[in-house]
Amino acid sequence: MGDAEKGLFSVIEKLKGKTEQELRIVLLGLDNAGKTTLLKTLASEDVNTITPTQGFNIKSVTTNGMKLNVWDIGGQRNIRTFWKKYLENTDLLELSELIDEENLKGVPILIFANKQDLATASPASEIAEGLNLHTYRDHEWQIQACSALTGEGVQDGMNWFCNSIVNKKK
Ligand SMILES: Nc1nc2c(ncn2[C@@H]2O[C@H](COP(=O)(O)OP(=O)(O)OP(=O)(O)O)[C@@H](O)[C@H]2O)c(=O)[nH]1
Ligand SMILES: [Mg+2]
Protein backbone atom coordinates (compact mmCIF):
# COMPACT_ATOMS: atom_id res chain seq x y z
CA MET A 1 0.00 0.00 0.00
CA GLY A 2 1.32 3.46 -0.85
CA ASP A 3 1.27 6.31 1.66
CA ALA A 4 -1.84 7.88 0.14
CA GLU A 5 -3.70 4.57 0.30
CA LYS A 6 -2.57 3.98 3.86
CA GLY A 7 -3.82 7.44 4.79
CA LEU A 8 -7.16 6.79 3.14
CA PHE A 9 -7.42 3.38 4.80
CA SER A 10 -6.84 4.87 8.24
CA VAL A 11 -9.42 7.61 7.59
CA ILE A 12 -11.97 4.96 6.58
CA GLU A 13 -11.18 2.92 9.69
CA LYS A 14 -11.65 6.03 11.81
CA LEU A 15 -14.95 6.83 10.13
CA LYS A 16 -16.13 3.31 10.77
CA GLY A 17 -15.17 4.03 14.35
CA LYS A 18 -14.20 0.49 15.13
CA THR A 19 -11.28 -1.72 14.21
CA GLU A 20 -10.71 -5.15 15.63
CA GLN A 21 -8.81 -3.95 18.65
CA GLU A 22 -10.87 -0.82 19.19
CA LEU A 23 -13.63 -1.08 21.73
CA ARG A 24 -16.30 1.19 23.00
CA ILE A 25 -16.95 1.38 26.71
CA VAL A 26 -19.75 3.31 28.35
CA LEU A 27 -19.31 4.28 31.97
CA LEU A 28 -22.56 4.79 33.79
CA GLY A 29 -23.32 5.41 37.42
CA LEU A 30 -24.95 7.83 39.78
CA ASP A 31 -23.70 11.39 40.02
CA ASN A 32 -20.71 11.79 42.31
CA ALA A 33 -19.80 8.09 41.94
CA GLY A 34 -16.39 8.92 40.49
CA LYS A 35 -16.78 8.12 36.78
CA THR A 36 -14.87 11.13 35.51
CA THR A 37 -12.19 10.55 38.13
CA LEU A 38 -11.89 6.96 36.94
CA LEU A 39 -11.64 8.06 33.32
CA LYS A 40 -8.93 10.59 34.14
CA THR A 41 -7.01 8.04 36.18
CA LEU A 42 -7.16 5.64 33.24
CA ALA A 43 -5.77 8.38 31.01
CA SER A 44 -3.09 9.34 33.61
CA GLU A 45 -4.51 12.84 33.93
CA ASP A 46 -4.85 15.13 36.93
CA VAL A 47 -7.89 14.26 39.08
CA ASN A 48 -7.95 17.36 41.26
CA THR A 49 -10.02 19.73 39.15
CA ILE A 50 -13.04 17.64 38.22
CA THR A 51 -16.54 19.13 38.23
CA PRO A 52 -19.88 17.34 37.73
CA THR A 53 -20.32 16.26 34.10
CA GLN A 54 -23.15 18.11 32.36
CA GLY A 55 -23.08 16.07 29.15
CA PHE A 56 -20.36 13.53 28.47
CA ASN A 57 -16.59 13.17 28.05
CA ILE A 58 -14.85 10.79 25.67
CA LYS A 59 -11.26 9.67 25.98
CA SER A 60 -9.25 7.04 24.19
CA VAL A 61 -6.88 5.00 26.29
CA THR A 62 -4.70 2.12 25.19
CA THR A 63 -4.40 -0.84 27.50
CA ASN A 64 -3.59 -4.54 27.00
CA GLY A 65 -2.99 -3.82 23.30
CA MET A 66 -6.52 -2.52 22.84
CA LYS A 67 -7.73 0.96 22.11
CA LEU A 68 -10.60 1.73 24.44
CA ASN A 69 -12.89 4.61 23.58
CA VAL A 70 -14.41 5.39 26.93
CA TRP A 71 -17.60 7.40 27.18
CA ASP A 72 -18.19 8.98 30.56
CA ILE A 73 -21.76 10.18 30.82
CA GLY A 74 -23.01 12.53 33.50
CA GLY A 75 -25.02 10.78 36.21
CA GLN A 76 -27.25 13.62 37.40
CA ARG A 77 -30.92 12.70 37.34
CA ASN A 78 -31.86 14.97 34.40
CA ILE A 79 -29.10 13.45 32.25
CA ARG A 80 -29.95 9.80 33.03
CA THR A 81 -32.88 9.87 30.59
CA PHE A 82 -30.33 10.18 27.77
CA TRP A 83 -28.29 7.15 28.77
CA LYS A 84 -29.98 4.78 26.36
CA LYS A 85 -28.99 6.96 23.43
CA TYR A 86 -25.36 6.11 24.08
CA LEU A 87 -25.75 2.37 24.16
CA GLU A 88 -25.54 1.31 20.51
CA ASN A 89 -22.36 -0.59 19.62
CA THR A 90 -21.19 -0.66 23.17
CA ASP A 91 -18.63 -3.20 24.34
CA LEU A 92 -18.91 -2.55 28.03
CA LEU A 93 -21.58 -1.16 30.28
CA GLU A 94 -21.39 -0.27 33.91
CA LEU A 95 -24.75 -0.37 35.66
CA SER A 96 -27.36 -2.94 36.24
CA GLU A 97 -30.51 -1.00 35.42
CA LEU A 98 -30.01 -1.22 31.68
CA ILE A 99 -29.17 -4.89 31.63
CA ASP A 100 -32.09 -5.95 29.45
CA GLU A 101 -31.45 -3.40 26.73
CA GLU A 102 -31.47 -5.13 23.34
CA ASN A 103 -28.35 -3.22 22.27
CA LEU A 104 -26.40 -4.68 25.16
CA LYS A 105 -26.87 -8.38 24.46
CA GLY A 106 -23.72 -10.26 25.42
CA VAL A 107 -21.89 -7.14 26.58
CA PRO A 108 -19.72 -7.82 29.64
CA ILE A 109 -20.49 -5.78 32.73
CA LEU A 110 -17.77 -4.47 34.98
CA ILE A 111 -18.93 -2.87 38.20
CA PHE A 112 -16.43 -0.69 40.00
CA ALA A 113 -17.08 -0.53 43.74
CA ASN A 114 -15.37 2.84 43.97
CA LYS A 115 -14.06 4.98 46.84
CA GLN A 116 -12.64 2.01 48.73
CA ASP A 117 -10.05 4.40 50.20
CA LEU A 118 -12.85 5.77 52.41
CA ALA A 119 -13.61 3.91 55.65
CA THR A 120 -17.32 4.37 54.97
CA ALA A 121 -17.26 2.68 51.53
CA SER A 122 -19.50 -0.38 51.13
CA PRO A 123 -17.47 -3.51 50.45
CA ALA A 124 -17.70 -4.94 46.93
CA SER A 125 -19.48 -8.07 48.19
CA GLU A 126 -22.27 -5.95 49.67
CA ILE A 127 -22.68 -4.01 46.43
CA ALA A 128 -22.78 -7.25 44.40
CA GLU A 129 -25.56 -8.48 46.64
CA GLY A 130 -27.44 -5.19 46.48
CA LEU A 131 -27.34 -5.21 42.69
CA ASN A 132 -28.35 -8.90 42.57
CA LEU A 133 -25.44 -9.64 40.29
CA HIS A 134 -25.72 -13.38 40.92
CA THR A 135 -29.04 -13.38 39.03
CA TYR A 136 -27.44 -12.21 35.76
CA ARG A 137 -27.25 -15.13 33.40
CA ASP A 138 -26.92 -13.44 30.01
CA HIS A 139 -23.91 -11.26 30.69
CA GLU A 140 -20.48 -11.98 31.99
CA TRP A 141 -19.99 -9.75 34.99
CA GLN A 142 -17.32 -8.80 37.49
CA ILE A 143 -17.24 -6.53 40.51
CA GLN A 144 -13.98 -4.77 41.20
CA ALA A 145 -13.19 -2.86 44.38
CA CYS A 146 -11.22 0.27 43.51
CA SER A 147 -10.30 3.81 44.27
CA ALA A 148 -10.46 6.03 41.21
CA LEU A 149 -8.62 8.63 43.26
CA THR A 150 -5.55 6.53 44.09
CA GLY A 151 -5.87 4.24 41.08
CA GLU A 152 -5.95 1.09 43.19
CA GLY A 153 -7.91 -1.71 41.52
CA VAL A 154 -8.60 0.28 38.35
CA GLN A 155 -6.14 -1.60 36.17
CA ASP A 156 -7.31 -4.95 37.58
CA GLY A 157 -10.81 -4.12 36.39
CA MET A 158 -9.60 -3.17 32.94
CA ASN A 159 -7.56 -6.39 32.72
CA TRP A 160 -10.68 -8.41 33.45
CA PHE A 161 -12.56 -6.55 30.76
CA CYS A 162 -9.83 -6.95 28.12
CA ASN A 163 -9.51 -10.67 28.92
CA SER A 164 -13.22 -11.23 28.65
CA ILE A 165 -13.25 -9.56 25.21
CA VAL A 166 -10.27 -11.62 24.03
CA ASN A 167 -11.91 -14.85 25.26
CA LYS A 168 -15.16 -13.98 23.53
CA LYS A 169 -13.35 -13.57 20.21
CA LYS A 170 -11.61 -16.95 20.46
N1 LIG B 1 -12.20 9.42 48.33
C1 LIG B 1 -12.51 9.23 47.05
N2 LIG B 1 -13.14 10.21 46.38
C2 LIG B 1 -13.41 9.98 45.05
C3 LIG B 1 -13.06 8.79 44.40
N3 LIG B 1 -13.48 8.87 43.11
C4 LIG B 1 -14.05 10.07 42.99
N4 LIG B 1 -14.01 10.76 44.15
C5 LIG B 1 -14.54 12.10 44.42
O1 LIG B 1 -15.94 12.10 44.23
C6 LIG B 1 -16.37 13.33 43.65
C7 LIG B 1 -17.16 13.08 42.39
O2 LIG B 1 -16.28 12.54 41.40
P1 LIG B 1 -16.63 12.62 39.83
O3 LIG B 1 -15.55 11.86 39.13
O4 LIG B 1 -16.89 14.00 39.42
O5 LIG B 1 -18.01 11.81 39.81
P2 LIG B 1 -18.94 11.50 38.55
O6 LIG B 1 -19.42 10.11 38.71
O7 LIG B 1 -18.19 11.81 37.28
O8 LIG B 1 -20.14 12.50 38.75
P3 LIG B 1 -21.15 13.12 37.60
O9 LIG B 1 -20.30 13.70 36.54
O10 LIG B 1 -22.01 14.13 38.29
O11 LIG B 1 -21.98 11.96 37.11
C8 LIG B 1 -15.10 14.16 43.43
O12 LIG B 1 -14.97 15.03 44.54
C9 LIG B 1 -14.00 13.12 43.43
O13 LIG B 1 -12.74 13.62 43.87
C10 LIG B 1 -12.39 7.77 45.16
O14 LIG B 1 -12.04 6.69 44.69
N5 LIG B 1 -12.15 8.05 46.47
MG1 LIG C 1 -18.52 13.12 35.80
Description:
This protein is an alpha/beta fold and 170 residues long. It has a single domain (19-169), classed as 3-Layer(aba) Sandwich (Rossmann fold). It contains 5 helices and 6 strands. It is globular. Bound molecules: guanosine-5'-triphosphate (GTP) and magnesium ion. Guanosine-5'-triphosphate binds next to helix 2.
Label this structure with key terms.
two-stranded parallel sheet, about 20% strand, alpha/beta, binds magnesium ion, binds guanosine-5'-triphosphate, Rossmann fold, 6 strands, globular, about 170 residues, four-stranded mixed sheet
As a percent range, the share of helical residues equals 25-40%
Average of the residue pLDDT scores: 85
| Total of helices | 5
Topology as H/E string? HEHEEHEEHEH
Instruction: Provide the list of bound ligands, each named once.
Output: guanosine-5'-triphosphate, magnesium ion
Shape: globular
The CATH class name reads Alpha Beta
Q: Indicate the CATH topology.
A: Rossmann fold
| Separation, N- and C-terminal Cα atoms | 29 Å
Neighbour order of strands in the largest sheet = 2-3-1-4
Binding site for GTP: 29-36, 75, 114-117
Binding site for Mg(2+): 36, 53
Keywords: GTP-binding, Lipoprotein, Magnesium, Metal-binding, Myristate, Nucleotide-binding
Main location: cytoplasm
Outline the fold blueprint.
Blueprint lengths: L2 H14 L5 E6 L7 H8 L13 E8 L2 E8 L3 H4 L11 E2 L15 E5 L10 H7 L10 E5 L8 H16 L1
Parallel strand pairs: 1-3, 1-4, 5-6
Antiparallel strand pairs: 2-3
The site of magnesium ion has 6 residues, from helix 2.
Subcellular location: Cytoplasm, Cytoskeleton, Microtubule organizing center, Centrosome
Protein name: ADP-ribosylation factor-like protein 3
Organism: Megalops atlanticus
